[in-house]
Amino acid sequence: MRDGRLTIGQMSRETGCKVQTIRYYEQIGLLPEPERSSGNQRLYSNRDRDRLAFIRHARELGFPLDAIRELLKLADHPSQPCEAADAIAAAQLEAVEIRIARLQSLKQELERMLAHRHGGKIADCRVIEVLADHSKCSADDHVAPS
Amino acid sequence: MRDGRLTIGQMSRETGCKVQTIRYYEQIGLLPEPERSSGNQRLYSNRDRDRLAFIRHARELGFPLDAIRELLKLADHPSQPCEAADAIAAAQLEAVEIRIARLQSLKQELERMLAHRHGGKIADCRVIEVLADHSKCSADDHVAPS
DNA sequence: TGTAACCTCTACAGTGGCTGTAGCTTCATG
DNA sequence: CATGAAGCTACAGCCACTGTAGAGGTTACA
Q1: Is residue B117, in this structure, part of any structural domain at all?
Q2: What is the SS3 assignment for B5?
């Protein structure tokens, strides 16, 4: 393994991405098929490693893989305007804000449920009661559990 | 369908739970196998409907199905102490709080990325740049994308 | 009674984003 | 040359559904 060629394990260590996940990214076309050694093992370039780091970082920021695919395409065309990339990031920001708002209303509801704790029997348990009877639940607008 | 017996479609309408999802809940043992009509169609009781409403409400609050299974078991034993139910709700609250915190740090990062928007080329695009180079990212501690 | 429209049935595949497993082969080190 | 770590492929499983196909059941109205 001389300079500039990384095994999949080295890629994994350098990016914090699991080996299986790297192979998975290759399988779904996010990473190119790398060279192989004479013994059929994957050999990556530094460029591949940077691409993987990009993907990982975007995943950490919650971008879905499809958005990352777009971003990678854009990153490969540096002379084009960056509005599209900004738009993807803006969409992601909006998605995150929506999820935060939703989770905050769930949080309030759970806090209300727990505020009535009294150490009694299930029969008088506020938690069970609220779950059983939606009308006891103040916020009515939470949808899917993000 | 006289009194007290609901078709799966009526169940769906009354609880807001999709027909397939009801069958799925039966399959994984969250809902009991209901009676069948002479034509092999499911016939539910009001009790079944209440149980499904309980499940849906708990799902809306983000409880995982395993937790709901526990809660249902508890709800079936009203004379037992409700500490276990409270504990499940408390765990769920904590999980929600963790997810909110994580999403908030993601939100900040995305806002920082977007604050540098300038309408130029990809080559100077802050979004792409930050994704490509983790060191340009201030918060370093976000883990899995919630 | 006919028939059209709708509902329900089973069984299975697909979603997203991985993760884990089994059973191999290859590689690096002593 | 032997051992153990790392790599290979192929596939199953996770969560919580959702969608589809193709069959059969039920209901409303003429």
Answers
A1: yes
A2: coil
Rounded to whole angstroms, the Cα distance separating A46 from B116 reads 28
Provide the domain limits for residue B93: 83-136
Tell me the C-alpha distance between A28 and A64, whole Å: 13
The three state secondary structure string of A65-121 is: HHHHHHHHHHHCCCCCECHHHHHHHHHHHHHHHHHHHHHHHHHHHHHHHHHCCCCCE
In a domain, B97, yes or no: yes
CB < 8 Å to A117, chain B = 86
Total of domains in chain A: 1
Q: What is the pLDDT of residues A78-106, one digit of tens each?
A: 888 989 999 999 999 999 999 999 999 99
**Proximity of residue A24 CB to strand C below 7 A:** yes
Q: Quick check: A132 and B50 CB within 8 A?
A: yes
Q: Burial of B134 by CB count in 10 Å (0-12 exposed, 13-18 middle, 19+ buried)?
A: middle
Same-domain check for residues B13 and B56: yes
* Contact indicator for A86, B125 with CB cutoff of 8 Å: yes
* ipTM for the whole complex: 0.79
Q: CATH no. for residue B26? A: 1.10.1660.10
